[in-house]
Amino acid sequence: MENRKVFLITGASSGIGEATARLAVKDGYRVVLAARSTSKLEALKDELGSDTALAIACDVSDWNAQRRLIDRALESFGRIDVVFANAGFSKGSPFYGGKDKPDEWKEMVLTNVYGSAVTARLALPELVKTGGHFLITGSVVGHITSIRNLYSATKWAVTGIAQAVRNEMVGTGIRVTLIEPGVVDTPFWGAVPKPGTPELHPDDVARAVMYAVSQPPHVDVNQVLIRPTGQPH
Ligand SMILES: NC(=O)c1ccc[n+]([C@@H]2O[C@H](COP(=O)([O-])OP(=O)(O)OC[C@H]3O[C@@H](n4cnc5c(N)ncnc54)[C@H](OP(=O)(O)O)[C@@H]3O)[C@@H](O)[C@H]2O)c1
């Protein structure tokens, strides 16, 4: 009976999630890779090995898709030990001006806020069974006031989700870590203008994730706020 621990990552097709998947496998985990881009997930699964990685197409804004994600992870690997709710993006954030685009904000709020909350709701019962770890990707802008930015507000909501889940899970042994990156060089910036400040590499954030996960069970790293050196406040 295979007993390697299982690490499930949403937003695993790219950037921070992809880098975390590679480090998790290096640390001995099997990984469940979730995102919408099937071809990228399949390529990563092939690289990591099909006895070690499972690729599952999943739009986190869809409850039923996330239900299938958890069910398929359990069918294939039998357990879930770590869940990283990391899927997210920024698009059309300013409040003032701009063209009418009725669904632009909906997609972002449904992914960043609702999607992360659904991941928690569906994964926590499995993490209770394994004494597991829930991590969620917020942002520096979920910690400071950022102007012109509904994206920032979605990340404030993520900060709230992390704190609420941690409170709710007191007594279960589950650990909850909020990962709050500053600017990271990923395709995230394809949709919004880059600030032109120093940048982290996705591996820098992945190492912070693995630091939190690799602590002894009595140590709950509550949050990791990680900026590139020299990024202004
Ligand atoms: N890069 C930065 O500077 C920065 C800073 C702070 C926080 N963050 C946060 O870090 C997280 C990861 O972003 P990243 O920088 O690694 O950017 P990225 O390379 O663009 O990765 C975003 C990931 O989220 C997935 N995703 C987006 N919408 C999804 C949906 N509806 N359902 C499932 N998966 C979805 C994408 O895959 P598919 O498109 O294939 O679905 C992709 O795998 C995000 O939550 C982002 O807000 C990034």
From TrEMBL:
The alphabetized UniProt keywords are:
Oxidoreductase
Alphabetically, the GO molecular function entries are:
oxidoreductase activity, acting on the CH-OH group of donors, NAD or NADP as acceptor
Q: Is Oxidoreductase among this UniProt entry's keywords?
A: yes
Q: Which family does it belong to?
A: Belongs to the short-chain dehydrogenases/reductases (SDR) family.
Q: Protein name, please?
A: Short-chain dehydrogenase/reductase SDR
